[in-house]
Structures are given as structure tokens and as C-alpha cells.
Design brief:
The structure holds 2 protein chains of 2 kinds.
Chain A (H helix, E strand, L loop, with lengths): L8 H8 L2 H28 L13 H10 L6 H13 L14 H36 L4 H15 L2 H15 L15 H31 L2 H8 L4 H13 L1 H24 L5 H10 L3 H29 L7
Helix pairs in contact in A: 2-4, 2-13, 5-6, 5-8, 5-11, 5-12, 5-13, 6-8, 7-8, 7-11, 8-10, 8-11, 9-10, 11-12, 11-13, 12-13
Chain B lengths: L6 H9 L8 H11 L1 H23 L33 H37 L1 H15 L3 H12 L3 H11 L2 H14 L3 H8 L4 H12 L1 H24 L11 H10 L6 H28 L5
Chain lengths: 326, 301
């Protein structure tokens, strides 16, 4: 990547990570996380009625015992402290509808599927989006540019819950190339995951390519690129070595919102394609009013979003020499 | 606003006094009218609004009438079910018009809620500056990191699903970007001479914000409002899609798509109609927003 030798590029990159900044941001994330847990907890408690008395009439003694076993007889503030303490230890409490499993187990069951489609789609989105955006910017106002931007506009305007069913109808039902939906637990294959991954990636590709194009156009007009041209550097080197690193900065900042998009999208995609992921678990929980489960997923998603915002900030610091955090 | 110019410039201005000056808004209107994509978007959106508002008055079928002998029939001219009927035998055109009405209403109301909160928050933070600004924007930073749509879901499952609540909840979580934009603009605006002049004339801070700052925020706010509408429409549809949006027999585009998706292989037309309508609505809103941004912010071109 770089022409100075001595240390490997990776080692030098790691050396540049602003650890102090990262640590401070990590600490600053604690109140945010706590706010999420707090809102989630009190909202759950604000729900009308006692959720355990919905199905069968219980004798007062049984109900009292049930409440005691779940800690519901303690003062509200004590319950809150217990909940926060448990969450810190990764215990999200028992599920209200699925008596054999804890919420952590339910979420854990869904994680492999959700992480797989999420990781693949964000990777595809970044590479395809940056690539398309660069091409469009280099050929600004050409037919290539217009078609890429037209497609990007479509990608932004067609929501996942439209692309998902459409792709599954075309490639699954009509053409029969891949699975239209459904996944047996533990069997993740190319056939069953390709459509969900593409569905999830499409809007992100669209947004990232628009971001990249706009910033690349600005970078290409800047003085240092003109200098590089004047020095007679080969165009390829100018674009990849000099322009690209500066042009992808907005994409790096977008990583946080992209996580939100992927998380939200995965809820839709898992439902469309019948994948047993965290999103599906969330919907099941929401529709059956399984509050602890819904809370658990919200807390997990909040944590993920905070984490990726943090990663984005650190990457930004690494890529932008102008940023000084100390 | 009067301008004090150097004498030479002044003379130049005098010579050109006969030429009618063009304001920022004149320029913007001209650019917007020249933007074919944005104008097409505006015309299409206008048509959609007309159809949503007045279509049900003229259409022979009602959105909640069940024709039990005509369930899930494909598009046909018979009985004028030109887009077919759903699995309960309700006319799809009538359902679509209802769904469009709800989706557009969500777009308008939720955007209005986000507009009011966002502008107030951003303008106060930007104008007050100092510690107030820091605290207010830090709060926005924290809220930004929250998976807000999931809190909307929490609200709907905890407090029940009223359409009014959904409007409010979505609007209440979409104001943060607006607040940031408005704050940035306000910071720049309050350094301007006319604000200083107003302060010197003894106008109270609230009066300055309302009379002098807010009107000057119009450009970026208008752009962002048009770009917020598709976002909130999508969010309502997302809720409806996973089964937590508006209640039957009321419907929204997201709910129709969700229903259609379930009958995908047997009656695909139930998906095509709402999906197409959704895409057209979002496309036209996005084109208008993009056009407005280009028109009001020449730098972006």
C-alpha cells in the first residue's frame, strides 16, 4: 500500500489507532447504552396489565409465587437495578412466551443467520457502492454516470420489503434458481442466503455510491489532485492512491447509519425469506407481546449501532490525517 | 436588508438598476423548473395526492366492502376490478387508494411533527450557543445512536396501535437530522448584520429567533422536509409490514405489500399494485427533494 518500508502496513496502521480516543468514546457510550436499557425497562413496566395473567386465571397464591420467582414483588427501582445488573452480565431475563428458553438463548439462536447476512451484505455494499460511485465520478455527466445514478435513485426508492418479495418471486418462484424462502435451522447455504443478502445490500449500495460519487467529484477538483496530474503521475495511481482515500471518508462516516439500515432491513428480509434470525425473533416477540425478548433485541441492536459508530470514528481518524483527537 | 457598497460598485449597481434583480428564490425557481426529473416528480406526486383524496369518491367499490363470491380474482374488467381483489374479496383499486391516503398522511403529519421539533431544537441550540448548545447537541448525539424505529415499535406494542400514535411516534424520532442542519445554519446566521441590528434595536432573543432566524432557515429546511417525507413513509410501511402498523380494515401501502407478499405465488397482482405505487411515490418525492437541493444549493452542482 505505502512505499515506506520498515514495518508492515498493518503494523503501522495499528500503531496509528488513537487508543486514548477509542477508550474515551467507549466510556462515553456507557451512558447511551444505559439510556437504552432504562427506556426499554420502564417502557416494559409501563405496559398495561400483568402479562403473566393473560392466559389462565391464577389463584392469588400462585400469582404471588410467580411474581416472587420473577422478582416482580420487589420495589420497582430494585427491579430496575437487578435488570441492569443482569444485562451487564449478558442475562436478558426469561422469555415470557417461550418458557423453556431465556431471552439470551433465543437471541443466540438467531445470531448466526443474522450476522452472516448482515456481514456479507455490508461488505458487498461497501465494495460495490464505492466502486460504482468512483466510476460515476470519473466519468461525470457521461451515460455511465447517469445510469449509475439512475439505478442508485431506484435503489434508494425501492424499499427492502418490495425488492425482497420481488426477487423471491422472480428467482425463486418463477425461475426456480434459488430458494424462494425458508431455512432449516443450522443449514445456511448459498441457495438460501443469496437473495436475502442481495436484498439487504441493494439500498446500501445505492446510498454509498451516491456518497462516493459526490465526494469523489469534489476531491478530483482539489489542488493536490491537480498537482499530482501536473507531476505526470499515471491516472490510475492518481485515482487509487491519491483521490480514493480522501473520497471514501464520507462512506466511513456513513458506517454508523449503514448499520442502522442493515439492522432494520434484516428484520424485513428475515421475515420475507423466513429466516430464523434475530429480526424474526424480534417480530415474534413484538407480535406476542413478549416484552423481555423485545427489550433484549433492542438492547442488542443499540449496542451494535454504538459499536459500529465507534469503529467508524476510529477508521475516520486513521484515514483522515487532518483529524487530531489528542 | 440594505447593502453598503464601495462607491465604484455603487455606480455599477446604479447603471444596472433598470435590470430586474434576481433573488436567490427566483434563481432557485428557475433551476427547479428546468429540472425535468423534479418537475415530473412534482406532477406525479400531485396526481397521487388527487387520487388519494378524491379517488375514493368516484370509484364504485369501497375499500372495506367484502365480495365473498369474488375472492382473490386477478385483474379483470368484470365488475371493474381492474387490479383484482384480495383474498377477502375486497377491490384492490379501492384498497390501494386507501393505502395511499394513509401513507401520504403519515408522510405529511410525521414530517410536520419532526419539522416543528427539529427547527425549534436546532434554532434554540444554535442561537443560545455556549453550554446550552453543547448540552442540547450532545443529547442529539446520544439519541442518534439509538435504534429508534425499535422504540417506536415498543411504543406501539406497549400502548396499543392507534394511527395517531404512530404518526406522532415516527415524527418524534425523525427530528434529529433536522435539528443538526438548523443549528448549523443558525450558528452562521446569528453572526449576520441584520441579527446584530435587531439586537441593537432591542428585539428580545425569542423575537430574533422567530422573526429573523427561522425565516432565513427556509431553504435547507424545505429541502430536508421533502427528503424526510419518503423516510417517514418508509418507516410507517416498515411497521405495517411486520404487522405492527395501522389496523384493518384501514390499510397502508406497507400493509398491502405485506399482505400481497403472503400470496406471492398464487396471486402476484396483490403485490405488484402496492409495490409499484410505493416505488412511484418514493421516487417522485426523492426526485423533488434532490431537485430542490440542487436548486437552492448551487454549490452542490
Amino acid at each position: 500500500m505505502s512505499d515506506t518500508v520498515n514495518a508492515s502496513p498493518l503494523a503501522r496502521t495499528i500503531a496509528r489507532i488513537p487508543w486514548g480516543f477509542a477508550a474515551r468514546r467507549l466510556i462515553a457510550a456507557i451512558p447511551t447504552m444505559l439510556a437504552i436499557v432504562t427506556i426499554a425497562f420502564f417502557m416494559m413496566r409501563a405496559a398495561p396489565g400483568n402479562p403473566y395473567s393473560t392466559e389462565r386465571r391464577l389463584t392469588p397464591e400462585v400469582e404471588a409465587n410467580l411474581k416472587a420467582s420473577l422478582g416482580l414483588d420487589k420495589p420497582l427501582f430494585q427491579q430496575y437495578l437487578d435488570y441492569v445488573g443482569n444485562v451487564v452480565q449478558g442475562d436478558l431475563g426469561p422469555s415470557m412466551r417461550n418458557k423453556d428458553k431465556t431471552v439470551s438463548e433465543l437471541i443466540g439462536d438467531g445470531l448466526p443467520v443474522s450476522l452472516t447476512i448482515g456481514a456479507f451484505s455490508i461488505t458487498i455494499a461497501i465494495f460495490a457502492g464505492v466502486g460504482l460511485g468512483m466510476v460515476a465520478a470519473v466519468r461525470q455527466n457521461s451515460p455511465t454516470d447517469y445510469s449509475v445514478m439512475g439505478l442508485a435513485m431506484l435503489g434508494i426508492s425501492i424499499p427492502t420489503f418490495v425488492t425482497g418479495p420481488m426477487l423471491s418471486l422472480i428467482f425463486g418462484v418463477w425461475l426456480g434458481w434459488v430458494a424462494a424462502g425458508g431455512l432449516d435451522l443450522g443449514r445456511m447455504t448459498f441457495e438460501t442466503l443469496i437473495l436475502p443478502i442481495i436484498t439487504l445490500a441493494l439500498p446500501q449500495i445505492a446510498i454509498i455510491s451516491r456518497l462516493t460519487r459526490a465526494s469523489m467529484i469534489e476531491v478530483l477538483r482539489s489542488n493536490y489532485i491537480r498537482t499530482a496530474r501536473a507531476r505526470g503521475l499515471p491516472e490510475r495511481k492518481i485515482l487509487l492512491r491519491h483521490a480514493a482515500p480522501a473520497a471514501i471518508l464520507p462512506v466511513v462516516s456513513y458506517l454508523g447509519p449503514a448499520t442502522v439500515g442493515i439492522v432494520t432491513g434484516s428484520v424485513v428480509v428475515e421475515r420475507v425469506f423466513g429466516l430464523p434470525g434475530v429480526g424474526q425473533s424480534f417480530i415474534d416477540g413484538a407480535l406476542t407481546r413478549d416484552y423481555p425478548r423485545v427489550m433484549g433485541v433492542v438492547i442488542l441492536y443499540g449496542g451494535l449501532i454504538i459499536l459500529f459508530n465507534l469503529i467508524a470514528d476510529i477508521l475516520y481518524a486513521l484515514l483522515d490525517p487532518k483529524v487530531r483527537y489528542e | 436588508m440594505t447593502m453598503l457598497a464601495a462607491p465604484a460598485e455603487n455606480a455599477d449597481l446604479m447603471n444596472r438598476a433598470t435590470i430586474k434583480g434576481r433573488s436567490l428564490w427566483d434563481d432557485a425557481r428557475r433551476r427547479l423548473l428546468a429540472n425535468r426529473a423534479a418537475m415530473t416528480g412534482a406532477v406525479v406526486l400531485g396526481l397521487l395526492i388527487l387520487i388519494a383524496l378524491f379517488g375514493p369518491l368516484f370509484w364504485p367499490h369501497e375499500y372495506k366492502t367484502l365480495y365473498r363470491d369474488r375472492t382473490a380474482i386477478g385483474p379483470t374488467l368484470e365488475h371493474l376490478h381492474i387490479l383484482g381483489t384480495d383474498i377477502y374479496g375486497r377491490d384492490m383499486v379501492a384498497r390501494l387508494m386507501m393505502g395511499l391516503q394513509v401513507s401520504l398522511a403519515v408522510g405529511a403529519v410525521a414530517t410536520l411533527v419532526s419539522l416543528v421539533i427539529g427547527v425549534a431544537w436546532g434554532a434554540i441550540a444554535g442561537f443560545a450557543g455556549g453550554r446550552v448548545d453543547q448540552v442540547m447537541m450532545r443529547l442529539v448525539d446520544i439519541l442518534y445512536a439509538m435504534p429508534f424505529i425499535f422504540f417506536v415499535i415498543l411504543v406501539t406494542i406497549v400502548f396499543g396501535r392507534s394511527i395517531f400514535l404512530i404518526f406522532l411516534a415516527i415524527g418524534a424520532v425523525e427530528w434529529m437530522t433536522m435539528a443538526r442542519i438548523v443549528r448549523g445554519q443558525t450558528l452562521a446566521l446569528k453572526q449576520k448584520e441584520f441579527v446584530e441590528a435587531a439586537r441593537a434595536a432591542g428585539v428580545k432573543p425569542l423575537g430574533i429567533v422567530l422573526r429573523h432566524i427561522v425565516p432565513n432557515l427556509l431553504g435547507p429546511v424545505v429541502v430536508y422536509v421533502t427528503l424526510t417525507m419518503p423516510v417517514v413513509i418508509l418507516q410507517e410501511s416498515f411497521l405495517s409490514f411486520i404487522g405492527l402498523g395501522v389496523n384493518e380494515p384501514l390499510t397502508s401501502l406497507g400493509r398491502l405489500i405485506s399482505d400481497g407478499q403472503r400470496e406471492l405465488s398464487s396471486s402476484p397482482w396483490l403485490l405488484f399494485g402496492p409495490a409499484a405505487l410505493m416505488v412511484v411515490t418514493l421516487l417522485s418525492l426523492n426526485f423533488i427533494g434532490d431537485g430542490l437541493r440542487d436548486a437552492l444549493d448551487p454549490k452542490e452542482r
